[in-house]
Amino acid sequence: MSIGELLSIEPQELQFPFELRKQISCSLNLSNKTDNYVAFKVKTTNPKKYCVKPNTGVVLPRSTCNITVTMQAQKEAPPDMQCKDKFLLQSVVASPGATTKDITPEMFNKESGHHVEECKLRVVYVAPPRPPSPVREGSEEGSSPRASISDNGSLNAADLSSVSTTHVERHKPQDNSSEVKSLVSKLTEEKNSAIQQNNKLQQELELLRREAKRNQSGIPFMYVLLVGLIGIILGYLLKRT
């Protein structure tokens, strides 16, 4: 951090994680710890390569301001990843209540007697963030954990727990198949019992039909027998008379 009389600037160098054909940005934080309005202006030795927002502004008393510096996409990497570009941040006391519209180039002219603070910032290229490391072979999906053996030949408790858990999980399909088999067996028994009850009901129905037929055939025989007895009695009475 650069601590001047007017502004504190952080960081002291602009670090860009360099990548080809990609825009890269970094930030500057300006802190005004005075009771004055402070105007600032940012210059660079390579204005076509960088975009600074805002490049001018006013930091209110006891407040901060953030500046974003964007490097345009580069087609070639510099030799040895060294950059000679520089930035210059100038700051000066502004009139109370000043805004960005009130800033003029004359305010940063030292020859006019203005007290101008200057801070030089260099550009540094750093390596881009590394991608996440690949997953280890032992932890790939579908691979079963292996218990590790310590120097004395005994299994570690955590490894033993993982192995036993895997063993139980492998036997779950067998438990499910046994449940299916028992369910099928139960349904088969219920089906056989229903068939037996159906056969029994059919037999009882057949017996009832036979008894009904016998009763129907017995009624005419009794009727004939009764008529015959009456005829005999009438004949006997007629002979006596």
From TrEMBL:
The keyword Transmembrane helix applies. One of its GO terms (cellular component) is endoplasmic reticulum membrane. Keywords: Membrane, Transmembrane, Transmembrane helix. The chain crosses the membrane at residues 218-238. The keyword Lyase does not apply. Residues 127-185 are annotated as: Disordered. One of its GO terms (biological process) is endoplasmic reticulum-plasma membrane tethering. It comes from the Eukaryota. InterPro entries: Ig-like_fold, MSP_dom, PapD-like_sf, VAP. Residues 141-166 have a biased composition (Polar residues). Residues 6-126 form the MSP domain. Belongs to the VAMP-associated protein (VAP) (TC 9.B.17) family. PANTHER family: VESICLE-ASSOCIATED MEMBRANE PROTEIN-ASSOCIATED PROTEIN, VESICLE-ASSOCIATED PROTEIN 1-2-RELATED. This is Plant VAP homolog 12.
